[in-house]
Amino acid sequence: MTDECEGAATRTGGTALCRLLVVSLLLCGVPAPATAQDPPSEHEVKAVFLYNFAKFVSWPPGAFPNPETSVVLCIVGADPFGSLLESTTRGETVEGRAIELRRLTVEGDLRSCHILFVSSSERRRLGRVLEALDGASVLTVGEMDDFAELGGIVRFTKERYRIGIEVNIEAAERANLKISSRLLSLALVVRARGGSARLPR
């Protein structure tokens, strides 16, 4: 994928449009309008992050067999997003690729995903999920405590009203994924052995 931020996507839906534009601008490093009101919900923010991850991660060539191959965004376990992912990704593309949403169980084909959100409902099965993905180029994302330290790649964090991200670069490298420096500039880098360090901005 690309390190370039493509800007806020055009969407429909009144208030939802305003919310998603603000979040997209923030992710792209563009100041949000000072007059923005009615801040987005936690999972609206996370849905936009999930969509934008596809713009800031490079997969190996084999992950996309042909130019028409979709970016497959999956959820395993209980879905906390409802219709938010559909409304966020509807009609959108990343480098010309459509976005396909799938909802899976642990027994599903997790390796067919490019981005996999692991629901907190799967906490007890996280080891099983990560083991099933061993050697696969899948960007794992979660929001449960210690997700990145336990081998997940990206974890959503929440401090008061602010949604942030942690990134386990070692886990990304094992998955043969390259994460853009622009995305890393927003992240707290976490190591599996418990150490962490902020990257310079």
Describe the structure.
The structure is a single chain. This protein has helices spanning 15-27, 42-56, 84-89, 126-132, 169-174, 181-184; strands at residues 57-58, 71-76, 93-94, 97-104, 115-118, 139-142, 154-159, 162-167, 178-179, 187-190, 196-198. The protein has six helices and eleven strands. The longest helix has 15 residues, at 42-56. The chain is an alpha/beta fold. It has a nine-stranded mixed beta sheet with strand order 3-4-2-5-6-7-8-10-11, sandwiched between helices. Helix 1 packs across helix 2.
Q: Supply the helix-strand structural class.
A: alpha/beta
Oligomer: single chain
Task: State the major sheet.
Answer: 9 strands, mixed
Which spans of ≥5 residues are poorly predicted at pLDDT below 50?
2-22, 28-35, 193-201
* Overall number of structural domains: 1
CATH class: Alpha Beta
Helix content: 25-40%
Spatial gap, N to C terminus? 22 Å
Q: Roughly what fraction of the amino acids lie in strands? A: 15-25%
Sheet with most strands: strand arrangement: 3-4-2-5-6-7-8-10-11
Summed over residues and divided by their number, the pLDDT gives a mean of 81
Q: Give me the CATH fold name.
A: Rossmann fold
Order of helices and strands: HHEEHEEEHEEEHEHEE
CATH architecture: 3-Layer(aba) Sandwich
